[in-house]
Amino acid sequence: ETGAIDATPGYALLAVLLHCLVVASVLLAGRERSRQVALGAAVVYTSTFYLPAFATPEMGPSFVPLMALALALLATELAAPQAADLTHHTSLLISLALFALFALVASLFSTSPSESMTWFLKLLTLGLFMLAAPLVIRTRAQWKQMALLIVAMGVTVPVLLSTAKLAQLSWQLGAWVISEYKMGLTELGGANLIARAVLVGAPLSVALATTATGRGLRLLWWTLNALALVVFATCQSWGGVIALALTCAFAGVLVYGARWRGWWQGRISGPVRYLLYAAALIVAVAGLWGLIQLAPQTNVESFNGRLFQFRTAIREIADQPLLGVGPGHYHVKS
Length: 334
Description:
This protein is about 80% helix and about 0% strand. By secondary structure, it is an all-alpha fold.
């Protein structure tokens, strides 16, 4: 019953259509645009729409074609007559190299090396695309095209499929079901992945809405953002809510941090400042305690499972303090 009610309407047909569109784009692209089209194909196949096939171990080594595509992109770009200057991406190269080295060592000394190596290669594939993106996409127009594709796959597709699901359930069970149903389309990875995809793509989606030219185009973008907000709410994802709160707090610090600090230091005296620090700490601890008390009542299975994993993770750190149990293996260990 749960699988049926969470099935994605039209998923198989849309997957075939998207795949055919990608194949047609690759075949019809000229030499000058071939690298951009290849990177766009990677966006499609690593999106939430295809992510279960990429991330689920039962699907096999589905990352292999993507890794080959990433390596081909880098090799083609660096071999081009006007190759990108890697000196502009030194920090990115160093970060990726250090991450890959540590993840490789952790995988080799994992309690299950074969499973950890699979996860390592998947993470490395995404890292290679992260490196390829600024090398392949250089102009403002190309970045905007990539932003459109990211929003299309990360926001528009999940939002449209989720909206179709809500409309289907409303027609079959009544409009009241929207307030009771937790969005968790199985083919898209469940509530948390949908909420994350919508949340990560939201800044680009809002930016495209604010910079759109023409009233009709702006209305279309803001309608998409409004539907994304509805879908995000129906996911009822604790992870999404926490991520949204932390993102807003971080953005607030970046925008208003200097002004707030100047006001704080200029108007609040030493003793009062420390009292306010203590009060803020008490409120934060009380809020966290309240959430811990509320969570088991709202989602018993999810909360208790995570609580068990958190406790097990502490034991894992004590048992393997240096390298851990290996990438992708914590759930097996717990």
